[in-house]
């Protein structure tokens, strides 16, 4: 997976970063924790800038939040839970995940949209209860943009600060990443098998 992410960033640049972060929001198993640090590292050779990476990553992530926001906006919560129960296994979303994100929103209101953009696992899902609660689009976009910009800035800086060490670390990470990715695929297939065969 890391090779695929790197090839897109290296060949398409900012548009690739925006595309990957958009997909990451809709399909969470694609991690921003891999996308943005590598983009930050690429800035050390001059082909990209930190500001450009932050802007591209933020734009892609905000655009990726909109489908989930509108999903919550146009579909009632119970219907969403039913859909999550029936089809969520393919997207790693369960009714409990929706409840968890809704609980955050109910306790903290609009502030949850900002805070959750900094929390892995809730970054994408918080858009659903924001839509369910009919949060106004402008505040949603502003808070999502602010939280996402901070998250992207931190990850970009982390990648850039490693400098040349990133490539050295990558030599050790590549074999590990294949094992981790293989484990993720195996876990994903088991999750689907469990939901489809065992629990049904």
What is shown here, in short?
The protein is mostly helical and 200 residues long.
Structure report:
The protein has 200 residues and is mainly α. The chain has one domain. Helix content is 78%, strand content 0%. The chain is elongated, with a radius of gyration of 18 Å. The two termini are 31 Å apart. About 4% of the residues have low confidence.
This entry's quaternary arrangement is: single chain
Arithmetic mean of pLDDT = 76
- Helical content class: over 70%
Uncertain runs: 172-178
Beginning-to-end CA distance, first to last residue: 31 Å
Number of helices: 10
Q: Decide which structural class fits the backbone.
A: mainly alpha
Number of domains: 1
**What is the N-to-C order of secondary-structure elements (H for helix, E for strand)?**
HHHHHHHHHH
Radius of gyration over all CA atoms, rounded: 18 Å
Strand coverage percent: under 5%
Total beta strands: 0
Note the main sheet. Answer: none
Shape from CA axes? elongated
Q: Helices, strands, pairings?
A:
Blueprint: H1 2-12, H2 14-26, H3 32-42, H4 50-74, H5 77-87, H6 95-108, H7 111-116, H8 127-132, H9 137-162, H10 165-198
Tag the structure with descriptive keywords.
200 residues; mainly alpha; 10 helices; elongated; cell membrane; transmembrane helix; transmembrane
